[in-house]
Amino acid sequence: MQIPVINRSHHPLPAYQTAHAAGLDVRANLPEPVTLRPLQRALIPTGLFVALPTGYEMQVRPRSGLAFKHGIGIVNSPGTIDADYRGEIRVLLVNLSDVDFVVQDGERIAQLVVARHEVIDWEPTEELDETARGTGGYGSTGSQ
């Protein structure tokens, strides 16, 4: 799949880090480092602009290494970039650790995953079909 992209950063385009990776690592495009204090969040620019085809979205997901090693996540994970959005891709990072974290220019801060999605029409009804699970909610399918 070809996706039109404008790269206004001075970094390479997002890339897959292994042959079978689902996500492309995207880098921070910063004029100076950004310090995230504990529980602080910041919108980090990437310098990238894309034109996705209709029927697709781009998901912005946390990087597992940043989450595990530093407690850095994405507030609205996964974030969604819609096919009609033409603005800069920015990543809403949050520091969930108890120490400051400095985001450096060029640092890999998130993964981008392109996924097909459906557009639905609601079908109002008064009843739903029965299933074995029924109305069982959180924690209802496993042991405690």
UniProtKB/TrEMBL annotation:
InterPro entries for this protein: dUTPase (IPR008181), dUTPase-like (IPR029054), dUTPase-like_sf (IPR036157), dUTPase_trimeric (IPR033704)
Task: Enumerate the residue ranges of region (Disordered).
Answer: 125-144
Listed under catalytic activity are:
dUTP + H2O = dUMP + diphosphate + H(+)
- EC number(s) per entry: 3.6.1.23
Question: What would you give as a GO molecular function for this chain, any one?
Answer: magnesium ion binding
Cofactor(s) for this UniProt protein: Mg(2+)
The dUTPase-like domain, residue ranges: 12-142
Question: Which pathway does the database say it acts in?
Answer: Pyrimidine metabolism; dUMP biosynthesis; dUMP from dCTP (dUTP route): step 2/2
- Amino acids binding substrate: 63-65, 76, 80-82
CDD domains linked: trimeric_dUTPase
Q: Which Gene3D superfamilies match?
A: 2.70.40.10
Question: Could you tell me where the Gly residues compositional bias lies?
Answer: 134-144
Q: Which GO terms describe its biological process?
A: dUMP biosynthetic process; dUTP catabolic process
Keyword tags: Hydrolase, Magnesium, Metal-binding, Nucleotide metabolism
Identify the NCBIfam families for this entry.
dut, PRK00601.1
Checking PANTHER family in the record gives: DEOXYURIDINE 5'-TRIPHOSPHATE NUCLEOTIDOHYDROLASE
Family affiliation: Belongs to the dUTPase family.
Report the protein name in the record.
Answer: Deoxyuridine 5'-triphosphate nucleotidohydrolase
